Amino acid sequence: MASVRTAPALQKISVRRVLAPRREPYWGAPLSRGLYVGFRKIDAERGSWIGRRFDEETHKHKYKSLGWETVDFDYDKAKVAATTWAATLSAGVTVDVVTLSDACREYVKDRRREKGDATAHDAEIIFKRTLYDDVLGSRPLTRLRTPHLKDWRERLGVTPSTADRIWRTLKAALNLAVRNRQVAASAAQEWRDVKPHKSTGKRRDLYLDVTQRRALRDAAAGNVRDLIEAAALTGARAGELTGAKRSQFDARTKSMSFAGKTGARTVPLSDAAVTLFKRLAESKLPSAHLFVRDDGKPWAHSDWDELVRNAATAAELPKGTCLYTLRHSFITQAIIDGLTTLDVARLCGTSVMMIEKHYGHLVASAARERLAKVTML
Questions:
Q1: What is the rounded average pLDDT of the residues 244-264?
Q2: In a shared domain, residues 113 and 150
Q3: What is the model's pTM?
Q4: Which residues pair with 245 in a beta bridge?
Q5: What CATH number is associated with residue 188?
Q6: Contact 194, 149 (CB under 8 A)
Q7: How is 243-257 classified by DSSP, letter by letter?
Q8: What CATH number corresponds to the domain at position 261?
Q9: For residue 3, is pLDDT > 50?
Q10: CA-to-CA distance for 43 and 47, rounded, in angstroms?
Q11: DSSP calls for 185-238
Q12: Confidence of residue 231 (pLDDT cuts 50, 70, 90)
């Protein structure tokens, strides 16, 4: 009668020490049905832990290197690692190595499929400029940790608000990787722990008066001048302007339809804005972009940043001046000149609550000045 081979007691250091070195791991008792922890003896002093799981669908074994045997990574820790790995497989998470760059490229494909080329292009530009050539891009998702993400965000060398905008795009790509089963859901805690900067609201503090706004426009070279002028005259977001088509402008009603993150809105235009949009719309087909780069191509995300900075430097404007500064200046000027918060909110595609939150002091001051002109008694 054949003898039954007994699994070695791998939990005991004394047992592991006397095992003969060999490539084939020594397998301990099963942790659960089809799941084992093995010990590969390298030499008299070294060994590593291996996980093995039987896949009932393919009727094949899958293996996982769990790590070297150390004082801090003993049999009990190896059991936990093997159980976690098995749970990941059961949840349908891929066993292939997926890097952060892989996840970002998949996100770009998803955006193109779900939201269109413009949204996909914006995300792709962000990843090309900040991630693909960075050491973080080659890190596997399973080994991604909070400090890695925080260090990368600091290396960007941009303002806190810009860093947080870039981070939101990357975070969306990571969350998609979880939904696509490219990494376990538990990994999401690593990026949930990366919080936005506390100072991201400071860009609203920079206001340009009408003389400065004109100086910025006049110092700009090429087609970015039109983008600057439109931002100053409408208070629209950069993406709403660069994505605008000829069909969205109605010269007869002197209005413009914008499509932004808060939805679509149709707003009246000032005479100066009508003159600008008429010039831009001339001889263009309804599907053509109103605003294009000097090479005739549509503006991509942040293509204008350096051009606006150069114009601001030439005009000797405060450091930090950007295209968004013109939106803030438009809202500020509109409130100072007496427009209601509801009017400003509708023109700029935001809420009355947001206007009152960030510009409440101006609203109160303008109301006080108007009240002083009213005779009550």
A1: 92
A2: yes
A3: 0.55
A4: 289
A5: 1.10.150
A6: yes
A7: T-BGGGEETTTTEEE
A8: 1.10.443.10
A9: no
A10: 7
A11: GGGGHHHHT-PPPTTTTGGGG----HHHHHHHHHH--TTHHHHHHHHHHH---H
A12: very high
